[in-house]
Amino acid sequence: MRLGVFGGTFNPIHLGHLHIAQEFARLLSLDRVLLIPAATPPHKAAPELADAADRLAMCRLAVQGHPVCRVSDTELRRGGKSYTADTLAELSAAYRGDRLFLLMGEDMFLTLQNWRQPERIWGAAEICAAPRSEHAEREMRAQKQRLESLGAAVHLCPIEFLPLSSTMVRRAAREGQSLAGMVPPPVERYIREKGLYAPAP
Ligand code: ATP
Questions:
Q1: What's the CATH code, domain 1-83+170-196?
Q2: Could you read off the pLDDT of 43-81 as tens digits, one per residue?
Q3: How far apart are CA 109 and CA 118, in angstroms?
Q4: Among 5, 22, 117, 161, which residue's CB has the most CB atoms within a 10 Å radius?
């Protein structure tokens, strides 16, 4: 099996995530994409981090109707800082003989060599990156060359980017605006019902 591995804070999951998950699957002929919410993201600040259970529930709601996508709670069960190298080691053992593709957006791709034990990461999975800004191409090509010189296999995937982020969703929720066009309707309902990302009363 060709297995996509898509980690993130997913605070909350949004349509930009779903879009790249599907497009990576199409372009790389992936049989499955595992979305893996991080317990504590080690590579970036996480302001207003919703509970793990809520982030997981929203991921599960979001992938309904996207048969290639599955949600894995492996990092949440492990707890603590979610290092990708450890997750990939776990998945390599669980999916022995399968080919792993680590999926990410431009921002994460450009810092990959600074993650913990990066050679364990590209030793276990091929690295697949999608742009997240207008003029990403030159910098992403340079990064591909750099990572390949370090031994990684890198796929740059020409996926049209949606200008969306979890930060934008949290801000809209805080300001009481509609989240239509940013998250799937069941995720919007969940955010409203649970009062997530609302200002403290
Ligand atoms: P935040 O705004 O809270 O920093 P985020 O929108 O960047 O969150 P993450 O869960 O941190 O979301 O991202 C998970 C992965 O998805 C990362 O690899 C990131 O680059 C990628 N990603 C997120 N949004 C997009 C988008 N609109 N286009 C392409 N890649 C994206």
A1: 3.40.50.620
A2: 777 778 999 999 999 999 999 999 999 999 999 999 999
A3: 12
A4: 5
